[in-house]
Task: structure prediction
Amino acid sequence: MQLARAANPMNFLEKTLAGFFRLVEHALDAEDIAKTRGFLQCLDPRIKFVGIAGLVVATAMVHKLWTIGMIFAVALALGAASRVSPLLLGKRVWVPVLLFTGVIALPAPFVTPGRVVCHLPGLGWPLTAQGLMSASYLVARVETAATLTVLLILSTPWIHVLKALRVLHVPALVVVIIGMAYRYIFLLLDNARDMLESRRSRMVGEMAGADYRRLAAASVGVLLSRTVHLGGEVYSAMLARGFEGEVYLLDDFRTRALDWIMLGFFAALAAAAIYYGK
Amino acid sequence: MHIPDGYLSPSTCAVLYGAAAPFWYTALRRTKAALMTRVVPLLAVMAALSFIIMMFNVPLPGGTTGHAVGMGISSIILGPWASILAISIALAIQALFFGDGGITTLGANCFNMAIVGSLAAYVIYRLASGRAALTSSRRVMAAALAGYIAINVSALCAAVEFGIQPVFFKDPTGAPLYAPYPLRITLPAMMIGHLTFAGLAELVLTAGVVAYLQRTNPALLKVSAPGAIIAEEEEREAAAGTGAWRPVRPLWAALALLLVLTPLGILAAGTAWGEWSARDFSSPQQREKIAEASRHFAPPVQAPSGLRRLAAIWTAPFPQYAPTFVRRPAVGYVLSAMFGVGAVIFVSLLAGALAARARGKPYELS
Result:
């Protein structure tokens, strides 16, 4: 048992555990939404992956704000048709991105050289048109790309996202490793959470900083030893099931007319955005 | 350091995907050759672990916390090639399943953290740890250095990638299209945060995990320590003056040589500017030398009163490196050097003994 020092409500244990819970919450949200009957959920995952990835690339390529706005509007419409609530998008994407990228973009209007449009009241710092434009580009691009990516994640079971990677010619071996890694993340997360929870349940008050550092390092060390042991066990289990080093994926997707129509729509939208956004 | 979509231009992203591709290819080939059929389960669990490590908040001095990437510990446990794959897969999962880091910027993120970070960490760890035993404290120091430098090199790469955006990618009005700040802003902005908080988090975690594994499972440290001597051998060699401490011997030899060469100081012409005694101001020859060393500004007629007063407080036993009982200046120089070096060694040993007593362990001379 550790003796108390000053109580700190958001210490290392609390923060790390909060991060773990948030991750599980996001994964469960994604699974729930992926199961609902919505527009994006109905599409072939390969078509959806290629189409949305194409829109993300188009968002990065265009040079006009209104074209980014157009792609963002389409993303909003897709979200609404796929029963992804704007509240969830706001909580998961828009507010965090605005806080992070917004803060990064904030000094741009003051430090970017260009035509001065006004001065900051009180401080007299000049704001340039180029700086304001640059900050707007950054925030708009990041918000739009993040919204599209989260729509893909929320509307597609993770196993389908993995299989969709094959259309990009990602080697089957890599796809299998990513898939297994995703499953083991939650197993290790459970392990880590149990370890930290049990430690927290035996603590009274707050530990000293150096003790926290030792605890963090020891927790990762324990997890590392368990992971190596787990790797050996998984390997033995795979050998017992006849694994000989070759991996195969069942490709059971079927495209329908709607999928091809949507692929055409995504391609046309991306091409139009790039053409008019030059 | 996870760069989201929109910060880098598509061409920068394409170049960095291209730069990462040969490393991924080589890493996959080498890892498959080393692990054979074990490659799938081992890489899967280690990638999962890399993902979890990135979620750990590391408490830092000053009451704040920071996230480590785990590139240092991953390289030390897995070796650089498997580490490249494990961290790349963890980053891909973050981008594809959790929206952390972009899809277009995945190549850049993998290049910075997985490739540059892993290789830098491994090279620094191997160089700094040398042949030290797996349980040697030198390995903890090497791990700390490896983690700290690796994350800073990765941050430097990201800062350069950000900083070149406004140079190459602007709209017709001159407004930057992507990350808006030039190198003179991105370099300090990224590096200050990483040289302090993020670097410290990586340092604490890498050193802490290596120290923990030394106590509980040192076999895990073998991959990155092919030439390591075993602990008993290290102790035996240390006692015999060989082995891991062998590099110290040339230092002793160099020190002895420098002692013998100290009379060369007599050959130096002129006086060191500002190192004058109060008496020098009343000696015509010395006054001439002072003026010569001061661009022919004439020194004051008398030594300044403050200098006179303070000079009287302490009289050195060997003034001007010339003990009064020695007539030949060269011998005086050598004796002074021996006395100085001996005093430094004595103080070091004394400090070591006091520190060992404070820790409650017997002090051993290496």
